[in-house]
Amino acid sequence: MILAAPRLFRDGRFEAEGALVIEAGRIVAVLGHIPADADLILPHGILAPGLIDLHNNGAFGIDCATADTDGFEHLCRSLAQSGVTSFLPTIITAPIPDLHDAAARIRTAIGALTAAPLAQMPGLHLEGPFLARARRGAHRADWLLTPDAPTLETLLAPDALRATLRLITLAPELPHAIAAIERLTRSAIAIALGHTDADAATATRAIEAGARLATHVFTAMRPFHHRDPGMIGVALTDPRLAACFIADGVHSDPIALRLGFAATGMRAVAVTDSISLAGLPRGSTTAFGGAGAIAEGGAARRPDGTLTGATITLDEGIRRLIAAGIPPEAALHAATQAPAHAIGLTDRGRLAAGCRADLIWLDDDFNVQNTWIAGVPIRPVASAPPRKPRLPATETLNPSATDLDEQPSEAIIALLFAQEAHAQHALRRIAPALATLADAVALKLREGGRLFYAGAGTSGRLAVLDAVECGPTFSLPPGIIIPLIAGGDAAIAGAVEGAEDDTEAASRLLAHHGIGPGDALIGIAASGSTPFTRAALSHAKAAGALTGCIVNSAGIMTDEVDHSIVIASGAEVLAGSTRLSAGTTQKIALNALSTTIMIRLGKSFGPYMVDLRATNLKLRDRATRIVAAIAGCDAATARALLERCDFEVKTALVMHRHDLDPTAARAHLAGHRSHLRHALSSRPTA
Fold this sequence. Notes:
The protein is an alpha/beta fold. The chain has 4 domains: 1-48 and 349-378, Urease, subunit C, domain 1; 51-348, Alpha-Beta Barrel (TIM Barrel), CATH 3.20.20; 410-600, Rossmann fold (3-Layer(aba) Sandwich), CATH 3.40.50.10490; 617-681, Helicase, Ruva Protein, domain 3 (Orthogonal Bundle), CATH 1.10.8. 49% of the residues are buried.
């Protein structure tokens, strides 16, 4: 099945239209366009991974501590309707025999509830009984225990509990807690720190022992103080810890949520901490954890006013986080990929090949429209009407230009500038993907490989320009960056008819250069479908080379490479004239790519071009200024150093720092792979 949507949510970012290829309940490919043979095209909204709730005590009238298989079926079906595709049924502090009974019922339910499209239960979360009395919240004090070895072994004795226990929340300051964390971690049970009065040092020791999550940060923890940051300070700053936040906006004020998400970034995990009152009307009551509770405004309270869990589902939590000022992509990441990563659910939480096809369809206000469990929808959904063959974005008409030829020149220029401003926003969105490509190419070049560009027309000429300019800027020897342009040298200064369709020419050129696994090839094409460029990429991939593309319209090419960069620059003011916005953005992207690669290879020192080739008076003056600035010497001294070493900036600087002659300075640089900063900070060996 091919499931397509106008937007995808992938790895913490919203992307343009795309599709998932699903086989046997798993994603086998992610496409950067909507193919003509898609089985289902969602008419609007966002296709995202299913939601994952790591802290769910129950909902829709079902308490995880007492539910039987029928009750869990109702809970799993209802949660799936709200977009939750996986959750950890959570049991709070209770006598150990009650915990054993609950684990046995959960194990039975997990085994029985596999056929229908229901939310999955990958394991049990125990919140307690090893919690701090001072921070127990709604947990009964008379049921709390210390995690000494005999008590821990008694808790873990039944097969049902050992087989289902995935996560346990405990207070690390309790006697024997650090040893318990080490014991549980060895058994592949994830540890969350919570309901704790621990100071920062104790929390850090717990992390070193294996703890990897913090349960509902801010809630039931020692308050943060600038001289006593405690568990909260550690949760917000230690990169080893996934920080879980209750997303109801009641347990934590919106300001605290904004602070928490800003501090933890991709480590933030959204949970509900819901109880059986979730999904029921305000004012509903229940018994929970040995006492009563009433639903009011997203949270539940004991009769004495103590907070005791939430009454929201996770989709409502996402909307509340967004309303609190959390960026939508951060809120959605915190409910999908972040919780999966936190407890090692490597096959869910992402739209990626190999992952379960646990999916949700959200409208633009983040309301759940449908849910898929292992590729099976929980309700029927109608496909969007068949689409007409889609033109590349650069070929579509710009609605602002319908009377372009009747406008005064100033208005035409203003429109052109406005379109370029729009294109710059598109560039900012591709920065993370471009950085990943730059690092991958730099690794190839560092090991002696080459970078090939392939393009036709404007794209090919821009590739040639970028490759040529890297020579004098970075003293790059010929043959390291090799541009291939359809039509050859004649196409640099003029058009060569039919060259972009000559697929055999691309293969001949790459065969001549002997491209192989140590090399990289990047195709540049505004349309994303130029035959010459596609053929070059296909040849490079078959040869084992790293492949990437820089395009302005998602198409077939983006699905055929290792790294695709889609600059959604939009319709040109003159439809199809890709020398305008598309060409401008390609040039900027190539500038950024090659410059970043060269920086990664050590060809800069801060803002200075320390590998420039000083071939004229202007560049020799620049070299003198660079050496004087970095070495902290006067211009005359810098000039004298440069004259001794053929105006090699790096060599001159190493000579000055370590009092070496040119030959020794070059040898010292070579020992540090020509990385100036490393060579300056390391003393030469005798």
